[in-house]
From TrEMBL:
UniProt domain CoA carboxyltransferase C-terminal: residue ranges: 231-473
Annotated ranges, domain CoA carboxyltransferase N-terminal: 1-254
GO molecular function: propionyl-CoA carboxylase activity
Gene3D superfamilies in the record: 2-enoyl-CoA Hydratase, Chain A, domain 1 (3.90.226.10)
Stated name of the protein: Propionyl-CoA carboxylase
Source species, domain of life: Bacteria
Amino acid sequence: MSSNNENLAIQRIAKLVDENSFMEIGSLVTARSTDFNLTAAKTPSDGVVIGHGLIDGNLVFIYSQDASVLNGTIGEMHAKKIASVYDMAMKMGAPVIGLIDCGGIRLQESVDALDGFGTIYAKEVAASGLVPQICGVFGNCGGGLSVVPALCDFAFIEEKKGRMFVNAPDAIEGNNTEKCDTASAAFQSENNGCVDFVGSEDEIMEQIRQLVCMLPSNNEGDVYTDDCEDDLNRACESMENMKGDPRYLLSQISDNNVFFETKADYARNMVTGLIKLNGMTVGAVANCSEVYDAEGKKAESFDKSLTAQGCNKAAEFVQFCDAFSIPVLTITNVNGLKNCMCSEKKLAKALARMTYAFSNATCAKVNLITGEAYGSAYVFMNSKSVGADLVYAWSGAKIGAMDSTLAAKIMYPEAGADEIKQKAADYEKLQDSAASAAARGYVDRLIDPADTRKYLVAAFEMLYTKYVSEPEKKHGTK
């Protein structure tokens, strides 16, 4: 199959890897089943190209499904080939990249095909936390196959032809494709919490290449993936003016302004992604209340509150970072918890999951408070009490149980406006400022916003050799 340069599966691999670096294996494998005249059909490579290649010199293992062979369906040998890719990747300690274009289960092989699905799932679980798993969806990815990108660490979907679904839109009661195309890239990206990026095929390949170059190759790899030519003491001016949009802040403090955002369209009030500090890859989790466009104009705004979707997004990302010993930076600017009927059904569990992820993580953890940090929402966001190694705050940050005026009204319900104003000022000075929190040891240093980069570089350099001896137990329950 590798000699067929017109084959789409091969073309996708060629776009992804360094030139002439891909080595195909298992090209002579074909389907074994003879039921329903399957032997009469030509099944070169049983519909999936597998092998290894290089991305900017980094070893990766790849499988790419070929929709021209039995519609790319998964049968016994197809699944065994994908499983063999995982086995090699785990032995060599290198990422696995799956390029999905599949018609689902191969009905002619029935239970053998079902067993193949289970084999793939099991290999993904075995590789989880050992090597990074990345997938791109370029065609159909439906039914049981939709679990494959969900089990991966990162998933990308082609904006026009990529389709991901558990049940097809027309199979959902009361719905049809014209009414709501639940399988579309846009719907899945905004709603399912699996998709990191939507774009053209070429854009996805470029994104995957950038991601591979930022990640450790395995759970014992080094987070120093680059040399740094950027000034470590570079001042970042005017960041406080756009503190509501952490995408701007993170890109400003990162080496050469590199910020790789994950799950960009999902739970947009919580931002997650990867930055570089002195060549070290750092995971970032940040509250977001504003979104600015390329011209610096406010395009979108959110409450400064934690939501269930945002907490789940943060928890999953922190768990990934911790598995690969990637340091975590949190940017805190939050004043409460989402107040609505929907949140009441899901928020407590999501808050527990995020708190567990931060507290349980043994990687280096730094919290930067840029604006408001009020109530239990502040505690959940990687505060010192749940395990942050260092907490920095911008000098004008507010940290406390609640807004000072509201606190004064609760404590002095009979007071007039002037007295409330005075009591609020007293409360802010004594209990509601970054300085008061620092006086109690909850903040390690007050910093000027322009100096953020140099202090964070120094913090993570110091924490590079962090080691935590964990108590003996099988695992936690969250």
